[in-house]
């Protein structure tokens, strides 16, 4: 069973969660194969005010994709059901250039 997409459930009243917003819907191709490697976002952890020291009032979600890469998503709070404006998603870091 693949684990995709990664969503956040939203509610107007805190009781009925009638809306889903996609946090990570992209499913990149696996670069490496192995046992128990599922596609999609896994090992999800969230950081909010009072849990660590994140900047601002946003929700920060950290997760692995395909058990190969780590991703961080900053979600403005309150969470809206629709994105308005441009989304900056061009900040990949190339670890092949890091010298140890």
Structure write-up:
The protein has 100 residues and is mainly β. It has one domain (1-26, 38-82). 0% of the residues lie in helices and 32% in strands. The protein contains no helices and five strands. It has strands spanning 6-10, 19-24, 41-47, 59-65, 69-75. It has a three-stranded antiparallel β-sheet, with no helix packed on it. A two-stranded antiparallel ribbon has the order 1-2. Strand 1 and strand 2 (19-24) form a beta hairpin. The chain is globular. The relative contact order is 0.20.
| Beta-strand content bin | 25-35%
Number of helix segments?
0
What class, by secondary structure content?
Answer: mainly beta
Number of domains: 1
Strand arrangement, largest sheet?
Answer: 3-4-5
Average residue-wise pLDDT: 76
Key words describing this protein structure:
mainly beta, 100 residues, three-stranded antiparallel beta sheet, 5 strands, two-stranded antiparallel sheet
